[in-house]
Amino acid sequence: MSREDGGPDGPLTPLEREVLELRALVRTLSGRLAALVAVLPRAEALALARGADAASASAFRLAEWHETIEVTRADIGAEMDLLWKRLPPREGP
Amino acid sequence: MTPRRVTIVILSWNRWELTRRCLETLKSHTDLTHVDVLVVDNGSTDETPARLAEIPWIRVLTNTSNLGYVRGNNVGIRAALPGSDVLLLNNDVEILQPDWVDRLREAAHAAADVGVVGCRLVLPDGRLLHAGTFILPDTFWGQQIGALEKNVNQYARTRDVEGVVFACAYLRRELLDVLPGLSEEYVSYFEDTDFCLRAKEKGFRTVCCGAVTLLHREHGSTSDAPDLFEKIFTKSQATFRTRWKSALEARYTAEVSWQSILNFPTGYAMSCREILRALDADGVRAAYSYVYGPGTPFPVLEPENTGDYLLNVLSKRSPGRRPRVSVVYGQGDVFPRNNGRTRIGYTMLEVDGFPAEWVKNANEMDEVWVPSTFNRDGFLASGLKKPARVMPLGVDVDHFHPGITGFPNPKGDFVFLASFEWGERKRADMILKVFNQTFRRSDPVALVCKVLNVNKPTNVGRQIGALGLSGAGGRIAFLHNKEFPYHQLGALYRSADCYVSAGRGEGWDMPLMEAMACGLPSIATDWGAHTEFVHEGIAWPLRIRGLVPADARAPYYKGFRWSDPDPEHLAHLFRHIAAHPEEARARGTRAAAEMAARWTWADAGRRIAARLKAVA
């Protein structure tokens, strides 16, 4: 017996039921959005994913990213120093 | 209560420059109220005697000839103030902190059975040189713990060790009353370990006080004369071997053949290293052999050098053709390689069951170990018929603790840290998207992702690009395919404010435990092995929406389920933790205390050792 059926913990309150319904709706919409994005050209998919602010919001940029499957041994001090320099500043570009 | 008086004994022999620096740093960093400084000059022929005579705050004893390190120090110990403790200090040591004598004295008097106290020694280039010593009966080659690691304040607590080097050794008077000096069977070398072992025979412990760090220039009196060094060293080693061989061998009260993986950057290998260390400390003579290689799912040969002296020695021990007890620590598909008379399989998995082949292999074992009740239940549900024991893993609280030196964000951002191999299981996509959407670029919050990918078809950069992250959203920086030496990993955690482990399932999660031991508050998926050691008091368990099919590249997951972490709850936790840094810090502090109290490798080793002794 599940809780939704009025199991050992008692019946769901209307608010809890609404939360469950909204979550289900979000999942459905997310699934539809993902399916839509999958068939769109990349630029349009990115714009759609960014939502209504798409025009004003710049895309996230990967700073100094070099795709590789090689693992490089590094010194933590030097690497963190570089990392903090790569972190985008709070103010926009 | 008046503190016990201390006589600091410094042995000098020529090289006035070293002695001068030692005395100058000592004078400027030491309250001499309860301290007597005694310099024993071992027949120097340079300016040393004249210079020493000019210093009013020291006592000087002059030997007419060079008596050597051992006899020279014994002269000083005999001349110490009656009833005082004695602190042996090499003249090539420099003092770096004002409370060093008080800290050593406190450690020495913390318990009645402490006899010898050493400290951390660092080199002039900043690397750690010493945090205690050990010596194995296989080789009789003394080893310094922590030697040549980058100094990030590891080994900061006071802990029991087999020995310490006597470049700085605080000796309690109660010990000196029954053991009045160094053994003069040695001229130099091995006399310090010998003394610590003799102290142990008399019922006194040796500890290394991690709260004290001194600089050691390592200008030994024989460093410029390699022939003389070899002669003295070889003779001392032979003397030591004769005296201690039986005692060191008797330290082992059980033995095990440990078939696993050591020398690759995998979770099994990293934990195997720590298990072997813990077993050795607990009196289990382990002989390691590589369980993978040709004919196994991981057909690569293992490099021989582990980069670690103890592990190299354990790897060279022969377990014999048919060892009494053998543990295979690895995936269940290599259990059949277990060649012991008593066969134990020790494994883990990230989903809610175990593959049929693993279960079949496990049922050929005498017993099966897993680190969590989560895995035990999954194994039993999958058809395991043999006894299943929960044998939790642990964390290294010497390299992972809140006092480790980090490299925090210079702008003062609150930093979340996630560390994962790129893939479906770790939910990297969810973490990045939720973080980016939860915060704005202008927020003083950042996410650091340490990402590993060795899978050629996977283009991580492209996949991150496809997530559609917004430049106006939460800021993210990546450490991509960077491997840090193990001893530096604590500094990574200490460079962040909160750790995030929001994956679908874990067989244990050593990085999470390491972050918690470092005092980081953490967000951790409330499912899988996490439930063994994560709870609301010390972390933020991340709710799951339920279980979903474990759809990933790993063939072992097929047909099983793992969790579906809740992105809405993750967003809530991101916001809450960033807005309540004090609450987060308090939770992290409690996490570190609980890791140190309950989940150390010493704890794990004791449990394993106890079981091995029971089945032997």
What structural class do you assign from the helix and strand content of chain B?
A: alpha/beta
Please estimate the helix content of chain B.
Answer: 25-40%
* Global morphology of chain B: globular
The averaged pLDDT of chain A comes out at 74
Q: Bin the strand percentage of chain B.
A: 15-25%
Tally of extended strands of chain B? 27
Give the helix level of chain A as a range of percent: 40-55%
Q: Largest sheet of chain B at a glance? A: 10 strands, mixed
Low-confidence stretches of chain B: none
Structural class of chain A: mainly alpha
N- to C-terminal distance of chain B: 51 Å
Oligomer: heterodimer
Number of distinct helices of chain A: 3
Q: What sequence of helices (H) and strands (E) makes up the elements of chain A?
A: HHEH
Low-confidence stretches of chain A: 1-8
The first-to-last residue Cα distance of chain A is 55 Å
How many helical elements of chain B? Answer: 19
Rg of chain B, nearest Å: 27 Å
Mean pLDDT of chain B: 96
Tell me, briefly, the overall form of chain A: elongated
